[in-house]
Amino acid sequence: MKDTKAQIVESAIIVFNTDFSASLDMVAEKAGVHRRTLHIYFGSRQALIECCKTEMMTTCQHAMTMAYEASVDPVKQLELMLYAGIECGAKYAFLDKFTGILHMAVSHRMRKTAHTTPSSPNGSTWLLPFSKWAWSASSSQ
């Protein structure tokens, strides 16, 4: 049987894929635990989503490695990696929604602080990792 933390993460992935705005109560119910138990492992919704992202990265990297190592034929490797990518993409689709929401928030914040640089002392230093990405996306709209 899976440990409680893994069960919560797996349940969160299922619930958030159905409804990204679903409550943590729904995640706890799906996992078969009390909400208090969920909060013992994850202090916030954001912490749970971060753990889901880490799980996705680990799972998808493993799937890609297994697909690559399953054959020495480059065409077969690409085919298997494509299928692995599709499977990972379907399982973790809610993270794409989360990334889209993050992108909108960053773009809005950058437009709002357009008179400053992403590394300015007025508090917008958190934008630095997203600056090129958000500026190029917002300027192409």
UniProtKB/TrEMBL annotation:
Source organism superkingdom: Bacteria
Record flagged with keyword DNA-binding: yes
A Pfam match: TetR_N
UniProt-listed Gene3D superfamilies: Tetracycline Repressor, domain 2
Keywords on record: DNA-binding
Gene Ontology MF terms: DNA binding
Domain HTH tetR-type: 22-50
UniProt name for this protein: TetR/AcrR family transcriptional regulator
